[in-house]
Amino acid sequence: MSNVLDVSRPLPQVARVWLNRPDVRNAFNDEVIAALTRTFADLAQDSDLRVVVLGAHGKAFCAGADLNWMKAMAGYSWEENRADAQALADMLWTLDQCPVPVVGRIQGDCYAGGMGLAAICDVLVAVDSATFCLSEARLGLLPATISPYVARAIGAQAARRYMVTAERFSAVQAHAMGFVHELVAPDALDARVDELVQLILANGPRASRACKQLVRDVCGVPITAELRADTARRIADVRASDEGREGLQSFLGKRPPGWLLP
């Protein structure tokens, strides 16, 4: 595994994307950013895909920015810094827009840019010994590009605290604020991730994608007549679809739905 990412397809419906720089605690650099952008852009076009698992090799999930990359940035002009930051912002957007559920697997330290990666996950599972940190202010910087995703995931009040203090917080604290959905012992991490993948695969393929988009579209917006009409239209569309009809008929007939049959 010589590449910065380790990408595999154990099933046609499942993709596993692993950060693969364990010697530097999976820190970001421009190569990692470009590889993640390309990989998720390609996955978004795959109609067979049902779920993505995002994880990392080694002891840390992601330690933030690579030190050598940071040294190079120290000599950048404003224009070069702007272009560099835009690439990171575009990468996060590409991951966030993945049309299928993303299950995050956090096995160790999750700092700075790693928090941005974790924040885009739809389901996040972490070992109970993992630690988290928005460390940018400690370096005189700020977590600008990851901030929309992190603030959405942990809430404004928690974001205010942990961005301005740059303190580490535990997996238990991350779970309490709703950032991490489940905590597990290290030896149970992979089994729980696999269980969650199977739960998603048991659902209607189009329904899973539509549910993810639904949350994007209804959260944080006023419940207007237009929104109510839109939600009614969506469920009518699904009920009248082949997948919706099959799901209901299989439930009433007490048989597995067609998407579960070989």
Report how far apart the termini are: 32 Å
How many discrete structural domains?
2
CATH class of the largest domain: Alpha Beta
What is the spatial order of strands in the main beta sheet?
1-2-3-4-6-9
Low-confidence stretches: none
- Give the helix tally: 11
Sketch the major β-sheet.
6 strands, mixed
> What name goes with the CATH superfamily of the largest domain?
2-enoyl-CoA Hydratase, Chain A, domain 1
Quick check: average pLDDT? 94
CATH topology of the largest domain: 2-enoyl-CoA Hydratase, Chain A, domain 1
Helix/strand-derived category reads: alpha/beta
How is the quaternary structure best described?
single chain
Query: What proportion strand?
Result: 15-25%
How many whole angstroms does the radius of gyration measure? 20 Å
Q: If classified by CATH, what would the architecture of the largest domain be?
A: Alpha-Beta Complex
Got a strand count?
9
- How would the global form be characterised? globular
